[in-house]
Amino acid sequence: MITNQLISEIKKKQSFLCIGLDVDLNKIPPYLLDTEDPIFEFNKAIINATHHLCVAYKPNTAFYEAYGLKGWKALEKTITYLNTHHPEIFTIADAKRGDIGNTSTMYAKAFFEDLAFDSVTVAPYMGKDSVEPFLAFKDKHTIMLALTSNKGAFDFQTKTIDNKEVYKHVLETSKGWANSENLMYVVGATKAEYLADIRQIIPDSFLLVPGVGAQGGNLQDVCKYGMNNSVGLLINSSRGIIYASNSDDFAEAAANKALELKKAMASELSHYFKS
Ligand SMILES: O=C(O)c1cc(=O)[nH]c(=O)n1[C@@H]1O[C@H](COP(=O)(O)O)[C@@H](O)[C@H]1O
Question: Is the ipTM of this complex over 0.95?
Fold first, then answer.
């Protein structure tokens, strides 16, 4: 998917919500455990109930890898279901990969070709030659960790080297990499106040912003400091939406939570994009 399609979908739906499909079998309604593929059944019900409210879905691969072959099959069925029934929706494989060049190429093939995701999350630690293989894929996006939502972000990412924080080096340096127009960046919603500085370095890039909901990030602050002329934000919530209920009404409860966030987003859009 090209970025302009994502932007027009955001404008059409008045939403820049990304729903995280982080499926934990201990948290889903117990009756689903009797079905042949509980993870896929759960995802399908959530997608059917929420697809009109969001513009992206982000399965975190950890929640599938943890269940071995069955988990990976459920991930494959989920992305195929999305690509078949909702091709307009942006898909993110949250896998946080990155390795020496030839290995990164194989990771990229796994997520872009075999599973046909629109994007994959990547860690920048191994540098240019570990990320460029992902960027080489046309009309695919590489979402690189910049400033993450967790406490550990302060261990390395905010440390100063040559008078500049490491996460700023990541942003600046990566702008010069081949096909850098295919880059998006992760910035945690819990670090909204850093977004003003971040926008100075990458004014035009899309940002994936996780951490609203269960981690306590604030939507209004993220918009205040992070929104650009093309919106430029995908705000993710996983647990706060998909585990709103673990009874028969789980999909409806998830849709209600997604609707709350979507309404708050529509209100931000009307504030920043007055017609
Ligand atoms: O790359 C991510 O998506 C990510 C980066 C980050 O800095 N913080 C973060 O929470 N995430 C992911 O975003 C999701 C957040 O989930 P909730 O806290 O349940 O909304 C999880 O899949 C995390 O792995």
Answer: yes
